[in-house]
Amino acid sequence: MYEHDVIVVGAGGAGLRAAIAAHEEGADVAIVSKLHPVRSHTGAAEGGINAALREGDSWEDHAYDTMKGSDYLADAPAAETLCKDSPKETIKLEHWGMAFSRDDDGRVSQRPFGGLSFPRTTYAGAETGHQLLHTMYEQLVKRGIKVYDEWHVTRLAVSDEEKPEDRTCHGIVAYDVQTGQVEGFRARNGVILATGGLGQVYDHTTNAVANTGDGVAMAYRAGAPMEDMEFIQFHPTTLPSTGVLITEGVRGEGGILYNENGERFMFEYGYANNLGELASRDVVSRAELTEVNEGRGIEDEYVHLDMRHLGEERIIDRLENIVHLSEDFEGVNPLEAPMPVKPGQHYAMGGIETDENGETCISGLYAAGECACASVHGGNRLGGNALPELIVFGKRAGHHAAGKDMEEARITTGKEGEYELGEVDSPVELGEAGIGEDAVADGGTAADAGASVSGTDLVQRAVEDERETIETLLERDDGIQQAEIRERVQKSMTRNVNVFREESALKDALRDLREARELYQQVFVADKSRTFNTDLLQTLEMRNILDIAEAITLGALARNEFRGAHWRKEYQERRDEEWLKHTMLSWNDGRPELWYKPVILEGENKTYEPKVRSY
Amino acid sequence: MSTQVPESVEEESATETASAGKQKRDAKKRERAERVQEQREAEAAEKARSADDTYHLKVFRYDPEVPEKQEPRFDDFHVPYKQGMTVLDALMWARDHYDSSLTFRHSCRQAICGSDALFVNGSQRLGCKTQLSDLSEPIRVEPLPHSDVVKDLVVDMEHFYDQMESVEPYFQTNSLPDGELDEQRQTRENREKVKMSTRCIWCSACMSSCNIAAGDNEYLGPAAINKAYRFAMDEREGEDMKQRRLEILEQEHGVWRCQTQFSCTEVCPKDIPLTEHIQELKREAIKNNLKFW
């Protein structure tokens, strides 16, 4: 068994920042990640980092934009923390040498982005994430922080008190991909989950193959609630054949969207009369799909994004990477022709419930970055707000886990504050299939560990459970393989739980997911080797995809309103009197339990009164 | 979920009925799963047969633990073609429909994570960035040469990482501004100067293509030298640091080993002018040494 003060799971932007912060506080910290840090999907982020750095801008304006963009479902203490801390965290990256694009006076460049009242998106070409990730990894190397790379974390070692709020996280269990070993990692102070996105729930996504929502699913099964899972961001400009992202920066710099008739539909059909292409992402995605559905799409599938009028010099200076992506992955040279684009899954606004210090309701368990939900983004994330989230909340979680005194959080976690129970009408049984049977899908807490059990023993038990699960998977030699189940789930989610949602389709998705869960009970791993067994790795990821897909669908079915990225056919309005609340799901002995907690709209100096959200 | 207890023959009748029921259910579920699986395999075979266009891949296979794979061999895969399909797409299709033990690293699918550098038809390329339609058949897919193979197309990257980390690959300066909100200024020209060098995705295609690195295990290699270039040329680090950087690069296994064969530059998927960077550092080193005469 390995032992450290702080264990960080995941090595993207949030994980690296958390590790550096914990190290700054003197903690013995290690990162455990299924990818080598530089392979993390933070590297694919293109657009930039929102930070109020310039005269005429302020964190208050940034917070206002963020709350409005969230469609009033973000918690003000979290959104304000993001906006207040982002400037110094962004400049910290500059001090670490990050190669930002520069203005003539030598200062870092900023550009306009969707939904922003000031051009505050600080960027490095159209490869800001790549520069950020590598800069941060350099700092990790400088500090000599230990990384266990290509170790896939499979479960948390959490005590099993009745109420999640009474539980403690003592460590993790991880599978060494290179050797097939299953080992425990004891965390003396805390575990920080920074596992990133969950886009592999869908088949058309900008996310990497590795983005299977592992941290969210693990925390959920250990008792930390998932929050606002129905809020999935569909980015309006992804390449149709692969889902590769074309940054919002293209529109920020002046790129224009056209339908098949060559109409600038954002204005001509009144989707966003003021901001046009720079309305927030949910608005633009719906507009594009409406165009396609009404017969004005190109090849009934996509629209055109044209940036040729910007001129080659400006494009190469600020968006060069986009030229390469469009050429390599769609065969279109955007200097000569408009790029085909359509909405694709991009980001999960929801995730593991945390407070503004990154702590969950389970003592010693933290989360930061895309896998967490503080909630900064509420119903819709603004472009350029994901990267600051990584550095701001990664740092806070790192400091907190290392034992630094933090200001008391205003956001409550678990059922500690005000809450109400919810109900949802599901056509099928929910939760784990085959409860009470020898279900391989079980990934819960270490069973029957009494209060007297030490942290180390608890980790050891979790290791033994996991070894047994893996042996079972490897011993079977017939049944069904994960690739088939994965394809079914992805297709059903893309068909039924996409940009436009309606009750009957959501119920179809729940039926498909039930079937997928039952199939998963018969899953087998054909590759019996202990060496670099990606068949096994993907089979383990699959159980996370199942739990997350169900949570997204369940939340979408429960929320009877239209807010942010969540559009419902039957409910065409935002219903503030009933729905200014977060959708919470807790894993209750293998079944999802639905409840709600109120949104906090009261900020430090003002209350963000919900207004009609028009762009 | 304890399975430690050996199965007892004489169980209570109630348990027996329950477990018999469960067995029946399990058998049914298993049957269904198998049916779905068989159907899928049949469909895949049918798809490959009926597709107008299939691509023939010969893929290197090796697994130290599996007897029939201990001797490296090539497996043939016929993959149905779709417009825009890449080598990575084809490998994923083959894995998901024919052989789930086919092993390769991949993640982002868009040439930024640097996981899937492979040896395709005799040169180092990223699988995700290489169109099948640009290649002649059969397409030979092999792990990167000059690296230890872990399994199939996966190679051991440790040596590459060690070299990258040996050049103090992090920003160092003595002239940071005092305020936490004050930026260090950098001219647009200087940012442009280091831009290409910052694009490295650590895929190690260059290192694998380099004859010198193949013969001298301690040679820093093009990627690590490029990483050092990125800092040495950054005006924000200052002159003192540049001295130090040049000392690191001038070591026995540093820039002077390069014989300007340009193979690294040819294979770099991010178009980094690696050889040029190495040459420039050699010139800098000479200028620097002359200064002290």
Automatic annotation (TrEMBL), chain A:
EC number(s) reported in the record: 1.3.5.1
GO MF annotation list: succinate dehydrogenase (quinone) activity
Recorded topology in the membrane: Peripheral membrane protein
Domain FAD-dependent oxidoreductase 2 FAD-binding: 5-387
Annotated ranges, domain Fumarate reductase/succinate dehydrogenase flavoprotein-like C-terminal: 486-615
Residues annotated as the enzyme's active site: R281 (proton acceptor)
UniProt key word S-adenosyl-L-methionine: no
Subcellular location: Membrane
InterPro entries: FAD-dep_OxRdtase_2_FAD-bd (IPR003953), FAD/NAD-bd_sf (IPR036188), FRD_SDH_FAD_BS (IPR003952), Fum_R/Succ_DH_flav-like_C_sf (IPR037099), Fum_Rdtase/Succ_DH_flav-like_C (IPR015939), SdhA/FrdA/AprA (IPR030664), Succ_DH/fumarate_Rdtase_cat_sf (IPR027477)
One term under GO cellular component: membrane
Pfam families: FAD_binding_2 (PF00890), Succ_DH_flav_C (PF02910)
Entry keyword set: Electron transport, FAD, Flavoprotein, Membrane, Oxidoreductase, Transport
Annotated Gene3D superfamilies: FAD/NAD(P)-binding domain, Fumarate reductase/succinate dehydrogenase flavoprotein-like, C-terminal domain, Succinate dehydrogenase/fumarate reductase flavoprotein, catalytic domain
Cofactor(s) required for function per UniProt: FAD
Family that this chain belongs to: Belongs to the FAD-dependent oxidoreductase 2 family. FRD/SDH subfamily.
Protein name: succinate dehydrogenase
Organism: Haloferax denitrificans ATCC 35960
Organism classification: Archaea, Methanobacteriati, Methanobacteriota, Stenosarchaea group, Halobacteria
TrEMBL record, chain B:
Domain Succinate dehydogenase/fumarate reductase N-terminal, chain residue ranges per copy: 56-161
Keywords for this protein: 2Fe-2S, 4Fe-4S, Iron, Iron-sulfur, Metal-binding, Oxidoreductase
Basic and acidic residues biased stretches: 28-50
Keyword Metal-binding set for record: yes
4Fe-4S ferredoxin-type domain residues: 198-272
An example Gene Ontology biological process: tricarboxylic acid cycle
Keyword field contains Zinc: no
Cofactor dependence: [4Fe-4S] cluster; [2Fe-2S] cluster; [3Fe-4S] cluster
Molecular function in Gene Ontology: 2 iron, 2 sulfur cluster binding; 4 iron, 4 sulfur cluster binding; electron transfer activity; metal ion binding; oxidoreductase activity
Top-rank lineage group of the source organism: Archaea
InterPro entries in UniProt: 2Fe-2S_ferredoxin-like_sf, 4Fe4S_Fe-S-bd, Beta-grasp_dom_sf, Helical_ferredxn, SDH/FRD_Iron-Sulfur, Succ_DH/fum_Rdtase_Fe-S, Succ_DH/fum_Rdtase_N
Entry coiled-coil feature ranges: none
Pfam family of the protein (one): Fer2_3
Annotated spans, Disordered: 1-50
PANTHER family assigned: SUCCINATE DEHYDROGENASE [UBIQUINONE] IRON-SULFUR SUBUNIT, MITOCHONDRIAL (PTHR11921:SF29), SUCCINATE DEHYDROGENASE IRON-SULFUR PROTEIN (PTHR11921)
Family, as annotated: Belongs to the succinate dehydrogenase/fumarate reductase iron-sulfur protein family.
Protein name: Succinate dehydrogenase and fumarate reductase iron-sulfur protein
Organism the protein comes from: Haloferax sulfurifontis ATCC BAA-897
